[in-house]
Amino acid sequence: MHIRKILASLAVAAFSLELQPEALAWHDRTHLAIAEAAGFDLWYSAAAPDVAKSKAPFTPIESPNHYFNNNAGREVTAEMVRGQVDLYDRPDDIGEGHLYGAMIGSVRAYRTVRATGKYARYPLAYLAHYAGDLSMPLHNTGFDDFNRARHGINDGVIDAGVRDSVASIRKRMEVPVIGNEADFAREVARVAELARRLGMKMRRENRDMTAEEAYTQVTLSASLLKAVLAYAETPAAPAAENKP
Predict the structure, then answer these.
(1) How far apart, in whole angstroms, are the C-alpha atoms of residue 237 and residue 222?
(2) Which spans in 38-96 are helix H?
């Protein structure tokens, strides 16, 4: 792409990003606890994607990977997840965000770099972060007045003690089996839909998450992340095998 077109795309993305939420989901210690509970060896890097996007709008590529503002309140399906994959890391198509596609996109990025023989694990740090974002209810619903008013407190509802609760999270985990990209999309949709429903329940009841609800959510993230990390290390299947 010509340099002028690149600069134009970034300028449009930067302007659009001003209309988007900051896309913080869970505070740092919660992200670290999710990654550690999942057995990710680079768990200490799980908060790094928020550091990367903190320079927005100068880095407009990253922020939309952290949320999906489901303004229509649609049920999250595997088809919806797969429809977002090509939007991963695209600053010219922010829309409602594309967290679900970012999950799959980060694994594809890892496999692509791994195939070159270069150090490839940084995309997995992004994956670990996105897996945490996925279970945060307010990252799966519209960024309305309720979301704006309550986002911060819900990000940190268990942050103070969560690093002491990694063993407890592990005991609660139920790790799904992911054998191909279709399975991957289905499991992303399952966690996202559970989070969306909780977010809608919180709205109806005009309240924040309880600590128990938050621990249930982060356990979903840790379980999914553990499964996806195992899947990421398997050879990439032909595209036809990944169709639902």
Answers:
(1) 24
(2) 48-53, 78-84
pLDDT higher than 80, residue 10: no
CB 189 within 8 A of CB 100: yes
- DSSP string covering 85-152: GGGTT-TT--TT--HHHHHHHHHHHHHHHHHTTS---HHHHHHHHHHHHHT-GGGSS---HHHHHHHH
Report the predicted TM-score, pTM, of the whole model to 2 decimal places.
Answer: 0.87
Q: What tokens were used for 67? A: 């949320």
Tally helices (H) and strands (E) across the chain. Answer: 10, 0
Residue 60's pLDDT is 73
Sign of the four-CA dihedral 25, 30, 32, 33 = negative
Domain count, the chain: 1
Domain that holds residue 63: 3-242
C-beta separation of 154 from 209 below 8 A: yes
Tokens representing residue 210 in the block: 């309880």
Provide Rg for the chain, Cα atoms: 17
CATH number of the domain where residue 95 is located: 1.10.575
